[in-house]
Structures are given as C-alpha cells and as structure tokens.
Specification:
This protein is an alpha/beta fold. It has helices at residues 13-24, 40-50, 70-78, 94-99, 101-129, 151-170, 203-215, 227-236, 239-242; strands at residues 4-8, 28-33, 54-58, 83-86, 133-138, 176-183, 220-223. Helices cover 46% and strands 15% of the residues. Strand 6 (176-183), helix 7 and strand 7 form a beta-alpha-beta unit.
C-alpha cells in the first residue's frame, strides 16, 4: 500500500477520483495545485469521511525555476512521500495555437516541458530514498498519432509518453515503478462542450483502472481498455491515407 501520495494537478476530476480511492485504502495525501486553498473543502471531506491525512501545497506547473527544490520543499512542509501522480494538463485551442505562439507554448510547456522537468526531480527524490515507490504520469491517447484537430497537444503528450518510457527504463533496477496512463475521452471540465467526443468515461472508472494497473506494476495503461485497440487501428493506417482523414 502507498503510504503517502503527492498528487500534482489535484483540482482535476481524475486527480480527485484517484485521491478518494487512495484515501479509502489508508494512504496519506499531498494535494498540489495552483491556488491550493480552493482544495480545502475537498481535503476536509477526505479528512472527515476517510480519516485521511491530507496536506495542501501550492504548485504551478509553469514555474520551472521552483522544480529542483520542490521535492525537498514537499518533504519539509508535508513529510515524505512514496508515490507521485502527475495529472495536470492543458488542452488548449488547436486553431489558436496554429496562429499564436503564446497558446502553442502554453500547451507544450504545460503538457511536456513542465511535466518532464518535475518528473525528473521527483524521480531523483524517490531514487535517493531507495524504498518502494512509484510515479504515475497521465498522458493521452492523443499522443499516439498526430491529428489535425489537436496535434500540438498530441505532440506534447507524445513527448511525455516517451519521457516516461525512458524514466521507466532508467529506474527498472530500483524499487520505483513508473506507469504511463493514456486515457481516452474522460468526462471532465476540460472536455466539457467539445464536439466529436465518443465513448466518454467517468473519472471514477479511470481512477480505478489507474490504481489497479499500478498495483499490478503495468508499464502502460490505456483506459478504458478498448482505447488500446482503437489506437492500434489508428496507428496502423498508412500515412498516405491517414493524412487525408479529417480526425
């Protein structure tokens, strides 16, 4: 069982579903997000219903200069942790990103640069502790193939997937397990109102899949399960055909 989990991006629906399940299993929680005080009602509910130890931590996914000190700051302010769950992300606007560098940069920096930098430092912290632990990184099926509808976001998530793969390879000889999660469409505020969504999963189902896969020490999780086969088909389409599709 995880003793204490650091959840980065704890305002998201998936993050809170994961937090609820970890708390129910007896794990302590460190919930990190921008304006973390807004999480106090959620934290209070976990303390009351689950008798969980819950701390809040201010965290900005674009404050790159603070990342090197973050693991030690967490340790000093909230205590040690043995699981890091990275859930933050920014879908952005693909049409705007194609025209404006600022939007493209925000998508790329939030979903890849910030994620990769902080994961690297968290991996160092866990490795130095030399005790069983893990890292869970939430990517996306969008990172499996570039599509005109979201290729900037997809490129960032694809880069994150490759980074997690390398991190998993690096840590294979340690007691630290790295899980890459590739959700399909999830019913969250980030996807609300988007057109063309199908097979939308509730965050609670995704959270159950994540924790089950981590406990089984799986390397890559598509959730729900059928997205593995959907993306296998999409990846197998020849480029000469794929580039003409409106996806």
């Amino acid at each position: 069982m995880t003793e204490r989990a650091l959840i980065l991006g704890a305002k998201s629906a998936i993050a809170q579903a994961v937090a609820q399940r970890l708390a129910a299993d007896g794990s302590g929680l460190i919930l990190a997000a921008r304006d973390s005080a807004q999480l106090e009602p959620f934290a209070a509910d976990l303390r009351l219903r689950q008798n969980a130890q819950v701390d809040l931590l201010e965290f900005d996914a674009l404050a790159f200069d603070s990342f090197e000190q973050l693991p030690e700051r967490v340790h000093q302010e909230c205590g040690p942790f043995d699981l890091a769950v990275l859930v933050f992300g920014y879908l952005g606007d693909q049409q705007q990103a194609a025209r404006e560098s600022a939007e493209a940069q925000k998508i790329l920096h939030t979903n890849f640069t910030g994620a990769a930098l902080i994961l690297g430092h968290l991996a160092n912290y866990l490795e130095e502790r030399d005790c069983p632990g893990g890292i869970v990184g939430i990517g996306s099926v969008a990172g499996d193939r570039g599509r005109q509808s979201n290729y900037v976001y997809g490129a960032a998530k694809g880069g994150l997937s490759l980074f997690l793969q390398g991190l998993r390879n690096r840590l294979a000889g340690t007691p630290i397990h790295v899980l890459t999660v590739k959700p399909g469409f999830v019913d969250t505020p980030m996807t609300e109102g988007l057109e063309g969504l199908f097979l939308v999963a509730p965050p609670e189902r995704v959270a159950d899949d994540i924790l089950r896969a981590f406990r089984k020490r799986k390397d890559v999780l598509y959730t729900p399960w059928f997205w593995r086969y959907i993306m296998l088909i999409i990846r197998s389409i020849p480029e000469r055909i794929f580039k003409r599709l409106k996806l």
